[in-house]
Amino acid sequence: MAVETIAPDWEFDRFDDGSQKIHTEVQLKSYSRFLEEYTSQLKGIEEALDDSIGDVWDFTLDPIALKLIPCEQSSLLELIKTDNKVLNKVITVYAALCSEVKKLKYEAETKFYNGLLFYGEGVSESSVVEGESQIQMGRFISFLQELSCFVSRCYEVVVSIVHQLAAVYNSNKVAPKVIETSGVHFQTLYEHLGELLVVLLTLDEIMENHGTLKDHWKMYKRLLKSVHHNPGKFHIPEEKLKPFEKLLLRLEGQLLDGMILQACVEQRFDDPGEGVSVAKNSAFAEEFAFNIRTIFTNLESKIGEPLEIDQRDKYAGVCCLFVLHFHIFRSVDKKLYKALLDVCKKVPAITLSANIIWFPDTFLVAKVPAAAKLMDKKSLQSIRAQRDAYLQQRALTLTKDVQSYYVFVTSWMMKMESIPSKDPKGDKLAEDLSSRCNVFVQGILYAYSISSIIKTTMNMYMSMQRPMTKTSVKALCRLVELLKAVEHTFHRRAMVVADSVSHISQQLQSQALCAINVAKKRVVSDRKYSEQRLDVLSSLVLAENALSGPSTKERRLVVSLALCVGTQLKTFKDEELLPLQLVLKKLDLISELSERVKLQCDCGFLFWHRAVFPIYLDDVYDNAVDAARVHYMFSALRDSVPAMLHAKHMESCDQLLESYDKEIMGVFHEHLLDKLCKEIEKDLRLSVHTHLKLDDRNPFKVGMKDMAHFFTIKPIRFFNRFIDIKAYVTHYLDKTFYNLTTVALHDWATYSEMRNLATQRYGLTMAEAHLPSQTLEQGLDVLEIMRNIHVFVSRFLYNLNNQIFIEKASNNKHLNTINIRHIANSIRTHGTGIMNTTVNFTYQFLRKKFYIFSQFMYDEHIKSRLIKDIRFFKETKDQSDQKYPFERAEKFNRGIRKLGLTPDGQSYLDQFRQLISQIGNAMGYVRMIRSGGLHCCSSAIRFVPDLEDIVNFEELVKEEGLSEETRRAAGVFDSVLKFRSAKNMHLRNFYMIVPPLTVNFVEHSISCKEKLNKKNKSGAAFTDDGFAMGVAYILKLLDQYLEFDSLHWFQAVRDKYKKEMSAVVKEQNVQSASQDEKLLQTMNLTQKRLDVYLQEFELLYFSLSSARIFFRADKTAAEETQEKKDKEEAAKGSSDGAAEASAK
Hints:
Layout: H1 2-5, H2 8-13, H3 19-50, H4 76-79, H5 85-117, H6 132-168, H7 187-208, H8 211-229, H9 238-256, H10 260-265, H11 282-300, H12 311-329, H13 334-346, E1 350-353, E2 356-358, H14 360-367, H15 369-374, H16 377-418, H17 429-463, H18 470-492, H19 494-525, H20 531-547, H21 553-566, H22 574-591, H23 593-600, H24 612-622, H25 630-638, H26 640-644, H27 653-688, H28 699-702, E3 716-718, E4 721-723, H29 725-743, H30 748-762, H31 782-787, H32 789-795, E5 796-799, E6 804-807, E7 817-819, H33 820-830, H34 833-858, H35 860-876, H36 886-898, H37 908-936, H38 953-960, H39 964-977, H40 990-1011, H41 1026-1037, H42 1041-1045, H43 1049-1074, H44 1077-1110, H45 1117-1143
Antiparallel strand pairs: 1-2, 3-4, 5-6, 6-7
Domain WASH complex subunit 7 central: 605-948
Domain WASH complex subunit 4 N-terminal: 33-603
Organism: Oryzias javanicus (Javanese ricefish)
């Protein structure tokens, strides 16, 4: 308000202090700073999305995508508006039919081709269950029903197009003409008709080549027959079966017999009800033939040439149109037929879709037999022979083609990359746009040529079942990479392309408008009036109107149809018409640029040629320098994924995708990742162990392959995972080095060195193992021993005094030992509960061993000898001073040897000794568990059996309510303690076999100790106290210590050896006088031997005595019982005395 009160004249002279200017500058600076920050943030986001994940970003994952296809909401009726109503109607009808054809073609290509092609895929042949084929076909029936409706619709559209054309080109003189048709040729409509016929042809070819589909169909029909015989079993009402069978017969006749196209061309086109004459319409017949010839002439010169774009597809359309013309009018243009066949020499086969290849010569001969008869057989055979020649030629030139296309594509990529992002200024704009247009078109041309070479070559080899050389496979894979490189270049420069496309379209539209405008002026300047001239003028106006807007496919269609009318009466000069046609072609390409690129660079066909993938990976592995190209191949393999989503034969298409993913990843692992891991590991090992000179590492002799290139590759995206080669190899090496270090801790330094080398040479970031370099607590775990107790007692030897187990023999340089500390560690690890379980396990094991023990003692040979010995001892003990004679024991030992030997030279007594040693080892193990438990917990002694009072363990366990397993174990132990029962009377002779067993043991022990000094140490040992433990334990179990002690066996042994030694000493004294050196040597050796034997017997005696103390074997069972009673009475007496004292 204050400002308003100031006088206006003062405003004029107001003092400017410059503060406003400063304020403005500050604001501008802060705004520019904000813009800079925002730009850097956007750049950061772009880089994060662009480069960090992979060189090739998956198109389907683009966070932002640009749709370059022009579109508008106008319908055809709104676009086609001129004052000429009749012309409007004609153009509208034809445009609508062309649009319908495009829609049908799109539906076929996306839905029906893929559904049929992928039928039966994704099911491994080995895992197919009975009836799976029929289930697949059952799921597929609804799809076939849809296909049947689609084919019927195609038939209707073909008839409609033929009728609409026949109505315009009418030879009936009486009937009024719709429009003047002289010089008017609706070539566009014929091309669309050809496209629709090619769709039907493709369906036929897919059915023809689909063996699986046909086999499953037969099996399904058989299933239906069996259902028909017994519908109740399958819960299907009989009245529903008949219609279903009829439907199947109709589907088979319409779709599966390869008659889809044939049925279409054999339709009845003459319909009196419609009032349209077709077959006898000579004007239409002539026009039809003229258009076929025109289209063919346009494509004949370009097909098979470098500038070819869609001529092959049009050629297939021309062949179909020729067949349709033949079937409608029953006339053959022999010259055109021959020309069509001649193209086969240049292009022997055409890929219709994916792996479906079509041979035009076979098709033309089969479908137009009348013309085929006129041809000489030699020329037909030469065309067939041309196929083989083409393949041979292709195999020779493939490598050259790859090289030349490599140069072309890379130079084109450079041109694409060099297009500036900013628009050029002023006068250079038109020139720049036309050069951009040419670069884009050139990219599409290269894509088309490369795609044609790959598809035709691969599919022809497959169709003709010819073997392909590895060189050809590698060359074709290189071409696939180039094809994807073209696509990715377009994608990478999407911003530039998007920016340019609309400008280029406008420039081309203005050029076309100029040309049409010149023609329009020429028509207007001519004063002669006629309906025909009016049609021309209207069509030119229509073309102008259609071009004045976005270049949508509808507008471009209207332009091409309008110009079919507008080019008559020589409105355009020849030098004007050709540039106009070229501009419109460019406009088509530029308007559909992204679609064309996607279509030409689509490598979905590789799904059927995935057998080349292993060879490709081997090539990548061998040539590691350009390993990054593997991104392009994975991008190509991903192209078949969208098509797989249309598979209908499985419960879900995810199953098909999963099997494909699994297969590709399996091959990738086998042929690249695993090979790379092994190679890197081998290289590291050989580099670290160069001092061993394992093999020749001279790169000049054996060559050198730098694997480091693989680790510079960005992660590869495939399905929903990223494959990081560097991370995979790092993980493999980490895992391998860690596992191998745990097995051999002393190798930690070697693996550490290999880790450092991997980091230096390959840039791998390895994880440290953090394992101890050595450990003193190595040893078998209690759990491990418990699970393998039978192996443990046979492979380890027990030392009674040190309480240690030593391994008998080992493949390593050292023997494993187990002592109390190891056991204590295990108990600390697993808890004290493991002690009970271990002892239970051991007693279960003992039960099995005692069964064998009992069998041996029951043997007639053994039992009879023992009874004989007992009787002999009883009869002669007075004469032998109550000692069991040593000779008798030796005789027993030798007698057993006579009964037979095992293949490794062991007698039955040797085996029995080993059995007792194993029983002793088991008891030694129990003792060690006890000691280990005491080490951990002094109260952990409750499981040691109290041999003073043998209670019934099983009953105690039942009372305690313990588990069934514990109850069974207690039962086992009870059975061991029942050895003394009457049932086991044959065991009472055991004490008598102990002397011969000791003799056998001493001989064995001496031979083991002697082997210690020999080079071959197999079987060497210095301790085996398991035998002493076993004998002491069994004597205690059988309560036979008194009987054994009555033999005074060890005293008898001492007496025997002392007697022999004194005899040797006497002999030495006698011989020393005679000075016989050799004899004296022999005497000394004999004395040494006797000394060794006596010493060994003494050692055994001491071990046995120690073991007896362990088992409290100094008393008999009766004495132990008495002692216990005395203790109880003494305790009772002391408690009574205490009670009396307290009462007083």
